[in-house]
Design goal:
The chain is mainly beta. It contains 4 helices and 16 strands. It has one domain: SOS response associated peptidase-like (hypothetical protein yedk fold, Alpha-Beta Complex), CATH 3.90.1680.
Length: 207
């Protein structure tokens, strides 16, 4: 499950690398947390959306609680009611420089970063939808993790090769689902002493 990632390229550079138009109004931080804006490639444009579909839970007395951002969609749940419409009709690409996972004992977890060796910018498979709560939102699609990170987490994002990006966005649901697979190649791993703090990175959900 990914609840923190880096996107260190500017909107114009992402637009150039993905051969789309840049939304000059896009505003996002280099480190993206659940519930905050990140850059998405959708509809021929690189633009900002909020990370995480809103999940509205009900309290013990029937009251609606504050929504939680659902930042990750499991591949085996894509045909469930929560994800089905977006998977069928609203798939997108998420440009990512690195994603992070917490590693170590509880209370002392540190950030471990992953990316593809020698790759300037990765494309992660995403879904998006308009919401009443937070405007346009997006989520990452997750699959079983590769052996290189299995001891840290059992799930990883769907990484798309450049030649598969159009199939993910424009293909049929069956063609897109065929791309939901564990990355078969090497990953670059950067272990740090930076603490995995609570707060935003700990408040997201996985469905």
């Amino acid at each position: 499950m990914c609840n923190l990632y880096r996107m260190t390229k500017g909107t114009a550079e992402v637009a150039r690398l993905f051969d789309v138009t840049a939304d000059s109004r896009a505003n996002f931080a280099a480190e993206v947390y659940p519930g905050y804006p990140g850059l998405v490639v959708e509809g021929g444009m690189a633009r900002a959306m909020n990370w995480g579909f809103p999940l509205v839970l009900t309290g013990r007395q029937g009251q609606k609680l504050k929504p939680k951002p659902v930042t990750n969609a499991r591949d085996d749940k894509l045909h469930s009611a929560f994800w089905r419409d977006s998977f069928t009709a609203r798939r997108c690409l998420i440009p990512v420089s690195q994603w992070a996972e917490p590693e170590g004992p509880g209370g002392r977890m540190t950030r471990t970063w992953y990316n593809l060796p020698g790759v300037e910018l990765m494309a992660i498979a995403g879904l998006w939808r308009p919401t009443a709560e937070w405007g346009h939102c997006y989520t990452m699609v997750m699959v079983d993790s590769s052996p290189q990170m299995a001891e840290v987490h059992d799930r990883m994002p769907v990484l798309l090769r450049p030649e598969d990006r159009a199939q993910w966005v424009e293909g049929s649901p069956e063609q897109a689902f065929a791309l939901c697979r564990t990355w078969p190649g090497d990953l670059a791993v950067e272990r740090t002493a930076d603490r995995w703090a609570g707060g935003s990175a700990a408040q997201a959900a996985l469905l």
